[in-house]
Design a protein that fits this description.
2 copies of one chain form a homodimer. With about 425 residues, the first copy, chain A, is of the alpha+beta class. Chain A is built from 12 helices and 15 strands. In chain A, the strands form 2 sheets. In chain A, strands 1, 2, 3, 4, 5, 6, 7, 8 and 9 form a 9-stranded mixed β-sheet that branches. The two termini of chain A are about 35 Å apart. Mean pLDDT of chain A is about 90; it is low at about 1-5. Chains A and B meet through helix 9, helix 10, strand 13 and helix 12 of A and helix 9, helix 10, strand 13 and helix 12 of B.
Chain lengths: ~425, ~425
């Protein structure tokens, strides 16, 4: 279940921290009382050195105002210096007033930080349909600008401030060597409902001091998302606010990466580790979840087939409820492979139930075989459960991550706004 | 919320009963102890007069053995006389042995009823992966053949025998006039989990004494399914066993319908009423459901757009949980329209919360407006709740039906096999 990129030990070191791990990045988290009381609900990421930015955003036709704002900034701004995030209200379905609010947020940040308005990204998460209280946002921005620091603690506070129904904050950081210099990449994200990214997940921010061209930065991010953030699902609902942004300020001093050389490959691997780790943290902390649920498909005809098949299994409500109940009802997973839209020979498929220690064959050549229910229940009681499907019709593979469907998911979402 | 086909009162009468309502059809339900104890779990539908048959089956790549058997019978048999159904075990993912079991079931029925083996349709519903106990099935068939009757009670017993997690049996029947004769159409079906038909829902059987050509019968059924059974979802899981079959024996004595004349149109409307009623009964009795949840989309660009949009809303776990919680979080429904894959202008959309008596505007031109939470809660407390979306970009409309997502859904499915 552990993410172990090939040769990961040789090319990267996993370190403490998140968005402040890389050189020149500061962060803060404060209580701005946007909607929640007595908890941090606004965060700032800041780099004095100008950053290149790349982003991937929700494919939902209903895009939140900050998504519209950020797409402009990522596409057209010469440099980005800051990201302002609030939790509690999503600023989605808020029309012109909502977009004006993004502009005012950026303006407030620009004044405090003495940067240009179009150097500020904004992001929101929470309830759809409500307007943001602009005065509180502006006051929050002033607090954030005063408080920002480059410490691990400051990064931690930012990661806490962007949480909604998340039960834990989510960060990761690694270092690699590039052009003889140490390059750091760190990130944070939040889930945990309305998670079925079809571009990327709700909110994720990655910072790095690597020097890399803007084109390659965007390409690396867009490619990597297909196997990481787009491979998780909590509830099949693709949010209006999904935002994944990476900022790089070049302070590591490596020779700028402008072609797909060895340094680029290392960066891609490190980025894949960061994204996979954050995506899995999000899936495992899905609303009400008691287990991280992975579906791995091997020997599929094509990579896209493998992706679609594995996503179909982790999105199946029936399979997710069975995982919650520790019931080895793998017929449901088989059924989910079948309705995924991918063509395959059902008479060939093998299914295994797995955790980090054991692999239990349950279906062979499309039929259920004798297996120990006791063993199955033991595996299903692990905090990380995997269903492995061997399609036996090719050489492509993919993994998708989700969580179980529990009473608490229903409880949280039957009563979210009150 | 009521289904009132245009001019329905003029062209049809709703009557008591189900599969035995039409002339010449008998039915039975018996306890065969296939998997359940102390309840009916096998059903028979029988017509001494030879029937034309049309069917629509699951699109799942993993097709249960009875689906494979029935497709052959519907396509190639000169006449159908009987349907044998069992609940408890789905006979899916059971390989050659499973298919052999269908053959043996048909053979047992053929012997008892003195008909040909290929005149027998079989259908199963229940747990995936287990083999059927052939001896018990054969004994059940003998009981059914002895017990069959043409009474309303016999139809009722059959409807009860095919239930799994259904809480109520589901039947409907109507009469129309065709060619100066009274024609009767009746049906029964069962849900209630793994319901997200992509051809039709789990098991539904319709009988009629109408005289109609086989080609037109199949065309009428295939067309109607698009707006009825394919427009419901309980949990997004498309079953391996979905089967919808119609049998017509011509005993009404109407001149055989061989072209799309007035009688055909009446039959289509009656069939639409039957299918819509059964589909809604299934949605409203979804596993754990406390409410029937309808999404109606109007003024969409195309019919297919309207279908996709309405289905996306009733399939959204978040929206379904909000309905359960009587929380007017229509932002989630708006979000579900947005990720449906259909293109539209989010700035135009109006959303209404409705029941049979009231219509409450909640979003206007893409933005939430002031509305009474008290009114909203009152509407959400109805047994039938509708979200109406006005897309304002065309003239097409469609309805889809689902149910709320409840603690009981999770409870039922965390522990289905035990």
């Amino acid at each position: 279940m552990k993410v172990k990129p090939k040769g990961a030990d040789e090319i990267m070191d996993i370190i403490q921290g998140g968005v402040t791990a890389a050189k020149g990045f500061e962060a803060a988290g404060v209580e701005a009382a946007i909607k929640y009381q007595n908890r941090k609900d606004m965060a700032l990421i800041y780099s004095e050195a100008p950053c290149k930015a790349a982003g991937v955003f929700t494919s939902n036709m209903v895009k939140a105002a900050p998504v519209l704002w950020d797409k402009e900034v990522v596409a057209h701004s010469p440099a980005v210096h800051a990201v302002v995030v609030n939790a509690g209200i999503a600023n989605a379905c808020t029309g012109k007033e909502g977009y004006e609010c993004c502009k005012k947020t950026a303006k407030a940040a620009a004044e405090c930080l003495q940067i240009s308005e179009d150097a500020v990204l904004v992001a929101s998460t929470g309830v759809i349909g409500m307007q943001l209280p602009v005065d509180k946002i502006a006051a929050g921005v002033r607090q954030l600008a005063e408080k920002k620091k480059d410490t691990t603690e400051a990064g931690q506070e930012a990661a806490e401030a962007i949480m909604t129904t998340d039960t834990v904050s989510k960060q990761v950081a690694v270092t690699i060597e590039a052009g003889g210099k140490t390059v750091t990449i760190g990130g944070m994200c939040k889930g945990s409902g309305m998670i079925h990214p079809n571009m990327c997940t709700m909110l994720a921010f990655i910072t790095s001091d690597i020097a890399i061209s803007k084109e390659l930065l965007q390409e690396a991010l867009s490619e990597d998302v297909k196997d990481t953030f787009n491979m998780i699902s909590v509830d099949g609902d693709t949010s209006t606010n999904d935002t994944l942004v990476i900022l790089t300020n070049g302070l590591a001093g490596n020779p700028e990466i402008t072609s797909k050389n060895e340094d680029y490959d290392k960066f891609r691997e490190a980025l894949n580790y960061i994204n996979t780790t954050l995506a899995k943290k999000m899936a495992g902390d899905g609303e009400g979840a008691t287990a991280l649920f992975e579906a791995k498909v091997i020997h599929a005809k094509t990579k896209e087939d493998a992706r679609v098949l594995s996503r179909s299994v982790i999105s199946s409500n029936l399979t997710k409820a069975a995982i919650f109940g520790h019931d080895a009802n793998l017929g449901r997973a088989f059924c989910a492979l079948g309705y995924s839209g991918v063509e395959f020979d059902a008479g060939l498929v093998d299914l295994y139930l797995e955790n980090d220690e054991k692999s239990l064959p349950v279906f062979q050549n499309g039929m259920m075989i004798d297996y120990s229910e006791e063993e199955a229940t033991k595996i299903l009681s692990s905090p990380e459960v995997r269903i492995l499907a061997d399609m036996k019709c090719g050489s492509a593979e993919a993994s998708a991550w989700g969580c179980d469907l529990t009473f608490d998911y229903v409880k949280i979402n039957a009563d979210y706004r009150s």
